[in-house]
Amino acid sequence: MGRKNGVLSTALQSKKTVVTRVVDRITEAIIQGELKPGDRLPTEVELCESLQVGRNSIREAIKILESYGVVYIKRADGTYVSDSYNQKMLDPMLYGVILQKDSAEDIIELRKVLDIGMLQVASHKLEQEDVGEILGYLDNLEQEIQKENPDVDQLLAADIAFHMSIAKAIGNELLISMYNYVDRITVPSRTHATELILNKGEMENFIALHRHLVDLIVNHDVGRINEVVNEHYMFWKQV
After folding, report:
1. Cα–Cα distance measured from residue 152 to residue 199, given in angstroms and rounded to the nearest whole number
2. Reported confidence tier of residue 1, pLDDT bands at 50, 70, 90
3. H-type helices in 32-172, by residue range?
4. How confident is the model at residue 29 (pLDDT cuts 50, 70, 90)?
5. What is the pLDDT of residue 154?
């Protein structure tokens, strides 16, 4: 069951609930490499003995880790550390962001960090021939906003698809998943921002801000990323 003096071989000592402590201990074992992707966890009996807790606490902890996508259970075989990425793994972090006081500002800040980092990678990694699909999504966005009566939901969907196309062009699955999750929790405030853009007649400015993002990538203009991203958020900040 791993190293004799490892994380899973030390009795629990903490003010947290027993189940939470077991979850923390197994997670720590994975982070430290005591348990690796694809490894089978020690049996319930072994975990009870090494952590000095009851069997029910072990079972509840395993259920929590399974719900997070950290482990999976093979019936009549055992519990294994997940060896592939699962979108459920991001849920606890994002729920934590949502539940924080004044979380709206924190969520915008989180999205801004993702945008800046994504554009830095894209500006270094992507060449002119890599942005064709991104330009296609930009065209779709422009077509939506130039309609006689633009639909807020369709316009927002086109906006989300445009930004996601940059993440997909980079080809980082973890970035795509994180971007997708952040998109989900920003829909309400971004819907209001989209309504603001239409009500103020800022359609041309809105498209220009998106063109600037593509220009950064095409010209490898890393030095202006912060400036352009901050400009891009001008309407969202007003919500």
Report:
1. 11
2. very low
3. 44-51, 55-67, 91-99, 103-125, 132-145, 152-170
4. very high
5. 95
